[in-house]
Design brief:
The chain contains 9 helices and 9 strands. The chain is of the alpha/beta class. The chain binds 2-hydroxyethylsulfonic acid.
Length: 272
Amino acid sequence: MDEQSIKPLIGSALAQRRLSLHGKTALVTGASSGIGLAVSVKLAMEGCNLNLVARRKDRLIELKRELLHLNPGLQIKIIELDVTNKNCGNELDSLNATDVDILVNNAGLAAGFAKIVESNPDDWSKMLETNVSAAFEISRRVASKMILKNSGDVVVLSSVAAHYSYDNGAVYCATKHAIKAFHEALRLETLEHGIRVMMVSPGMVETEFSVVRFAGDQNRANSVYQGIQALDAGDIAESILFALQQPRHINLDEIIIKPQQQGNPWKVYRNP
Ligand code: 8X3
């Protein structure tokens, strides 16, 4: 390769590379709290129209009102939906999914923190239904529409638990490993359709996550984040936005994001 002169290289490095999301339409699951809510705010600020999916309708109504206050021109639809409901596909079909440019497949949970032999199979079912069956089904339905128009972005919320298995978290880790495997395959199957499939895998994020995992025990949830600066939902939303704003020839396959003080799920430096 001939040696290139410096000037065009500098020009190319300086070029504005962020894609505009203005006028796009996103579908965000689990939009009523945490990462789903934060990413909805970020997308709204970029001028992206929104389909907000969650179980808690009152919160979606409030969120819609706030988002329209921030960006009055947006089209925002709220969809009250339990993603584990077997009929939820009909609800999703009722919105014009062909209009969805961006899927943020975020709804997920951890239920319980116990050794396999001591854990509750009801907790297993909750995690398997939400994190696996529902997440797969939503990606399938939306991706099938994206394939028809040969464009679209799927961002799926995974976890560091997709990379490590830790004790007391067997089923949660298994569900996140499954999400990773499924969406890696989806990426391969949709390459030829101009579709991007991206994964964001957070470590410790201080949201309702631990309160849900510990069945409402706020003190136990607080102790998870004691002595560290955990991530917040906005940190993760920022990474999702960054991935989506890359030019279309770039697919950020996975962003693994942890607090500086967390090396892996069990190696955490806590301030004395
Ligand atoms: C949540 C992160 O470390 O609790 O997905 O598994 S962790």
